[in-house]
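Preliminary data (for renewal application), flavin mononucleotide complex.
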Amino acid sequence: MTLGPEIRAEMEQIKQRYPDPRSALLPMLHLVQSVQSEVTTEGMALCADVLSITPAEVAAVATFYTMYKRRPVGKHHIGVCTNTLCGLLGGDAVYAALSERLGVGHDESTPDGKFWLERIECQAACTHAPVMTVDWEFMDQQTPASAIDVIDQLARGEEVRSTRGPVIRNFTATERTLAFPDDGLAGEGPVADELMLAGLRVAQERGMSAPTAGQGN
Amino acid sequence: MTLTPVITAHWDRPDLYTLAGYRAIGGYTALAKALQQEPDAIISTVKDTGLRGRGGAGFPTGLKWSFVPQNDGKPHYLVVNADESEPGACKDIPIMMATPHTLIEGVIISSYAIRANHAFIYIRGEVPQAIRRVAAAVREAEQAGLLGDNILGSGFNLRVTIHSGAGAYICGEETALLDSLEGRRGQPRLKPPFPAVAGLYASPTVVNNVETICNVPFIVNNGVEWFRKFGTEKSPGFKVFAISGHVNRPGIYEAPLGVTMRELLDYAGGMRGGRPVKFWLPGGSSVPMLTAEHLDLPLTYEEMAAAGTMLGTGTPMLFDDTVSVVRAVTRWLEFYKHESCGKCTPCREGTYWITGVLERFEHGHGSAAEIDTLVDLCDQIGGRSFCALGDAAATPYPAALKYFRNEFEAGTSQAAELEFAPAASYLFSEATAR
Ligand SMILES: Cc1cc2nc3c(=O)[nH]c(=O)nc-3n(C[C@H](O)[C@H](O)[C@H](O)COP(=O)(O)O)c2cc1C
Ligand code: SF4
Ligand code: FES
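Predicted structure:
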């Protein structure tokens, strides 16, 4: 898909969020990925034009950040955290199982363009290890079997829900959310799941609470 | 010490992420109070609480705010560091998902105190659900007149911009974050000047962690004396601890600073299968590891420093005796190697070398001489790098060697997986895995 005038207009809109237009570059590159599933040369040229900087300056930024891809990601981005905590607690096995099932390795996509597999770094969810992400939505506490189920269901076009977020859409939809975050899905998923509530539950069971100052909060 | 839910106290309310839910628990009452005070009065209150930054370094928050020059005619900015990418750190993202309005209320009060009219929340790009919740909270606050012009009739104006990152751990370093927020590669800047003097767009800027800012509404509502009921003289307050690893009930546990790891571990149901703690890290992979003998130390900035480590992000990771320390450290170094921004040589080249040597040890091909060479190499990186990522990369190996030299010695003749079968550390058994 090419980047039409409406995308240029949206980039102008993103610029308005910042005192200095160049600050809009990161969300603008997410917007490019939301249309083209990668950061294309065309996309970088458009960003450069909108911001009045050179395409080389845009390329320097686009190649610095791991979320920007120079090959199409395809329908679903599958991340498996293999940083120490998740990896050693089972993420390595989850990754190996998915790699075998999909027949691709790190940063590769399946020939049918359905899945991109990636070993990802700590997702700020170590309490929920081993962590997988689908289109960057959390799929917490995976096993190799559960992760393969997720892939198979997605491959069959069945509904899969993030453990702490919405029903999985696709990679480009998430990229759009990163450019325009108020996407109407804030209410999806729990406010806090049982792991996030672990301490509060213990406190409630054991009758523990913070000292009060007698007012507010 | 007991658990003391403050920031987490109402996380079991299904509507907490909405303005209505947050108001129902007394939300935005602190804002009304704050706007009736002089900005400087709020800065002194925060100073008096002794609140220290929860992003890892523990710098006193009120002091940082007081460095912002006043009446300088320049715009001021508040930038919330919501990049949370430190391995093991997993508390800011849950806070934003569960109670985004606490953050927004804190942002408004903090901006008012430092006289900023534009605040930015820089959230790592890989967490769309946290980004959406914060963005929705901003919209609701705008619609309710809690953001925008003349907030609650006070004459104070504030805009909040949510900014999605794009995957780079280094962007959590505050000056790299500012470069990233200016639309550039996220590479650290030379300090001084510090951001408080010349930060975003070369204007005075306060960069604070999510949890730090979430303390502010509670401080305004409840006062200095109340805040100091928690914690110690040098480490006052409460902390959102996120406990991960081989514990029976990993998760979020909020307690006063000064609680011990043993107490927290008890709340978290102990280690799985009653196995021993082999090593643990109080706050992220960038702080030196400790062992079971340190479980009774109070989790404070000062006690952790005395034990040769740091409180860091206050998000303990615990590993049991199935884990090869060589494998764990190698994996962390692979992370630092991947995330080194490449700006300075000790870190760019050093992380590459350490990782290569460690990988040899993991596979049983290390050489005895390299055990100490590697310490020298780490010495060449720590303290000689441009930013704290280099120091962090030089941390895991010497710390591990101190307690587990025998495992590195074994790595000269035997692969780690022979003594430590990887599957033994998994949270699922191999039988149920497929
Ligand atoms: C490599 C590196 C990564 C960092 N990542 C974060 C982060 O994700 N979040 C954070 O609040 N601070 C992070 N910091 C610390 C920040 O530089 C800074 O000290 C902090 O945001 C200040 O806020 P505080 O005073 O409220 O803690 C990081 C530092 C380094 C060196
Ligand atoms: S220490 Fe590492 S991350 Fe920091 S500036 Fe140098 S190369 Fe970049
Ligand atoms: S190590 Fe996987 S989420 Fe932190």
